[in-house]
Design brief:
With 212 residues, the protein is an alpha+beta fold. It has 6 helices and 6 strands. The protein has a 6-stranded antiparallel β-sheet, covered by helices on one side. The termini are far apart. The C terminus is likely disordered.
């Protein structure tokens, strides 16, 4: 998936910005302290697993300051295989109406017109919206509005994150230090090796000499 557009509202110095992204390389040019880094940081918060842990992240001129968190929306292109996987997952979570809408999008759209939007206004699945948009079929669905019962909302949201949602990380210059790791360390749950995992780098250091 590729990020095609981001909406940023009340994030740090950014009051309200609708920002289209074209191509695979994004270059931000501007004066110091004009908000370039804030745009990149906002994009990194499209990863719901990255926690808003400081209320100061909210724009000080906003009515939400000291009361709530920024609003972020990211739109990603989506291929038909990801939609098929989503439909397979959704069979256990969405009601009949929701499944029918997904099938309408599947029948009317292709890889060029399918999009996944995530909206975020806080921490946790309860502060997220996952939306599927079919531009050709002119059909859209807010997935979490069509769950069979509220008690499975978090479980369904986690399934979406784990199965089709892209990995999003922000690496600053001083943080791009890849530490060597063994296969067992890479397979562990330790966050110490997250960078290496996410970059999909096969990098193995043998700590012991092989038996010969």
């Amino acid at each position: 998936m590729e990020l095609k557009q981001i909406r940023i509202k009340d994030f740090k110095s950014i009051r309200d910005l609708d920002f289209p992204i074209k191509g695979n390389i994004l270059s931000l040019v501007g004066k110091n302290e004009c908000g370039k880094s804030s745009i990149l940081e906002a994009i990194s918060f499209l990863n719901p697993r990255k926690i808003f842990d400081d209320i100061e992240i909210t724009n000080k001129s906003s009515s939400l300051y000291e009361k709530g968190y920024p609003y972020l929306s990211g739109i990603f292109n989506m291929d038909s295989s990801s939609l098929d996987k989503l439909i397979e997952i959704s069979n256990n979570y969405l009601n009949d109406q929701g499944l029918a809408i997904l099938l309408d999008i599947k029948s009317g759209d292709d890889d060029e017109s399918l999009f996944l939007e995530i909206e975020r206004w806080g921490n946790g699945i309860e502060n997220l919206s996952f939306n599927i948009i079919g531009k050709k079929s002119k059909t859209a669905i807010k997935l979490l509005d069509y769950i069979q019962k509220k008690t499975i909302r978090n479980e369904y949201g986690e399934k979406i994150l784990n199965s089709i949602f892209p990995n999003i990380s922000l690496f600053r210059d001083e943080e791009i230090r890849i530490k060597s790791a063994t296969i067992n360390q890479l397979k562990s749950d330790s966050i110490e090796y997250d960078t290496l995992r996410k970059l999909n780098v096969s990098y193995l250091v043998l700590n012991q000499k092989p038996n010969v």
